[in-house]
Amino acid sequence: MKRRILLGVLLLGGLLIGLVNAAGSVSTQSCWTPWDHNSDVRQWSDNEWVWTGIHGQVLVCNGQFKMVLTDTVYGTATAKGVEVISKGLKIDSKRSYAYVTYTRYGSIETAFADIPNYFG
């Protein structure tokens, strides 16, 4: 009888120690992957406008931005009625952006959208 009680106490103690060790090895870092998007739209009329936008997921851990998940990023830059100098999309894990540089009435301007937008 005493042996069974001793064996039961040892098994229960081993189980409790195992649970404590398992709980201690669980990561306390809280990470999530929200979608981030940004756009820059300028419109002077139906026939004169520029637009750039970007969309993608970012990795945020403990409330701090960690990286852009580059395989989720897409964006565009377009214009109508202005002279387009350049436009493009740059995808990087630290910062991704879309832009269009244009001339309107002799002034050179850039429409620019980037991620991270909320966490940068």
Automatic annotation (TrEMBL):
Top-rank lineage group of the source organism: Archaea
Descriptive protein name: Uncharacterized protein
Organism taxonomic ancestry: Archaea, Methanobacteriati, Methanobacteriota, Thermococci, Thermococcales
